[in-house]
């Protein structure tokens, strides 16, 4: 079996075999079965609602619907909710083409991280395909600001993220810098779980959110500390924000060559950056990896 490789690859990749799991949606609380199937070159990532006559919704920024507490997609009224963790796992592993079948509206939250999806894909492995992978290479800085919130994407030879968060205690301020082209996603980012504050639970549930949340699928933060520790990383909170960012940026439709810097951002800021990139085509170009590496040598 060919091993799952890091995300920086010359050719596109898909799964060697289908994988599946079941769980509940974080916000809807509904049970859902998810199957991830191999797909042909050029397919990208497509969600398929098996409960709605196999209606398909492409994982692209043009289908973004809601981004308050998760990133959801919609096409012709058909919703695919909470996509970011699964999409993040695909980018981290270098999975380009797949069909994700669901029998309900929301992806399963599993343990609140991307680890289970990573392990499922690693179990069957990836298959290289006969098509060069096109990378989105950033040509000039792209920035989105909203008050104290900020996200920017800058030209660079690899894909890296610098993320800064500032929450009330006991989380406080955290920051991380990670080079995602080195193949460390499965170890350093995938296990980081989503989190929420206990005192906000009632208000969020009254809004129709986090109906499937539990101590098994989220870090529960109280004003005094962590209710269901221990943490998987000392800085697990900011690592999960990186996990979300990777999934949201995948909606560009291509893996990125660039450096992302984010301060107190979130799904809305992540997807605003995606929307700007899709709107302003002059800010980037699509290149195969060989061309990108050749340009780096010439410009060195």
Give an overview in words.
The chain has 300 residues and is of the alpha+beta class. The protein folds into two domains: 11-133, Ribosomal Protein S5, domain 2 (2-Layer Sandwich); 135-299, lpxc deacetylase, domain 2 (lpxc deacetylase, domain 1, 2-Layer Sandwich), CATH 3.30.1700.10. The chain contains seven helices and 19 strands. It has helices at residues 84-93, 115-124, 185-188, 201-206, 236-249, 267-279, 289-299, and strands at residues 11-15, 19-24, 31-38, 45-49, 55-58, 64-66, 72-75, 78-80, 98-102, 126-132, 134-138, 142-146, 149-154, 159-166, 173-179, 195-197, 219-221, 256-263, 284-288. Strands 11, 12, 13, 14, 15, 18 and 19 form a seven-stranded mixed sheet that branches. Strands 2-3-9-4-5 form a five-stranded mixed sheet, covered by helices on one side. It has a three-stranded antiparallel sheet with strand order 6-7-8, with no helix packed on it. Helix 1 (84-93) crosses helix 2 and helix 5 (236-249) runs parallel beside helix 6 (267-279). The longest helix is centred in the last third of the chain and has 14 residues, at 236-249. The chain is globular and about 55 Å long. Residues 295-300 have low confidence and may be disordered.
Outline:
With 300 residues, the protein is of the alpha+beta class. It has 7 helices and 19 strands.
């Amino acid at each position: 079996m060919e091993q799952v490789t890091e995300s920086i690859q010359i050719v596109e990749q898909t799964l060697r075999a289908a994988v599946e799991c079941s769980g509940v949606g974080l916000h809807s609380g509904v049970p859902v079965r998810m199957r991830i199937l191999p797909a042909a070159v050029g397919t990208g990532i497509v969600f398929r609602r098996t409960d709605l006559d196999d209606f398909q919704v492409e994982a692209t920024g043009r289908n973004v619907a809601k981004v308050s507490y998760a990133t959801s997609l919609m096409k012709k009224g058909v919703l695919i909710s909470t996509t970011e963790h699964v999409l993040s796992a695909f980018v981290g592993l270098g999975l380009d083409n797949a069909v994700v079948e669901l029998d309900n509206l929301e992806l399963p939250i599993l343990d609140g991280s991307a680890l289970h999806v990573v392990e499922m894909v690693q179990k069957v492995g990836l298959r290289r395909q006969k098509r060069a992978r096109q990378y989105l290479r950033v040509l000039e800085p792209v920035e989105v600001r909203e008050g104290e919130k900020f996200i920017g994407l800058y030209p660079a030879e690899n894909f890296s993220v610098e993320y800064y968060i500032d929450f009330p205690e006991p989380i406080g301020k955290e920051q991380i810098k990670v080079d995602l082209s080195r193949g460390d996603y499965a170890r350093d980012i995938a296990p980081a779980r989503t989190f929420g504050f206990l005192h906000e639970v009632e208000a969020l549930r009254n809004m129709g959110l986090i109906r499937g949340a539990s101590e098994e699928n989220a870090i529960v933060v109280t004003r005094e500390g962590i209710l269901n520790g221990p943490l998987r990383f000392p800085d697990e909170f900011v690592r999960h924000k990186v996990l979300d960012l990777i999934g949201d940026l995948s909606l560009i439709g291509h893996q990125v060559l660039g450096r992302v810097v984010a301060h107190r951002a979130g799904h809305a800021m992540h997807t605003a950056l995606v929307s700007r990139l899709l709107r302003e085509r002059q800010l980037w170009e699509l290149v195969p990896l060989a061309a990108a590496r050749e340009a780096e040598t010439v410009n060195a």
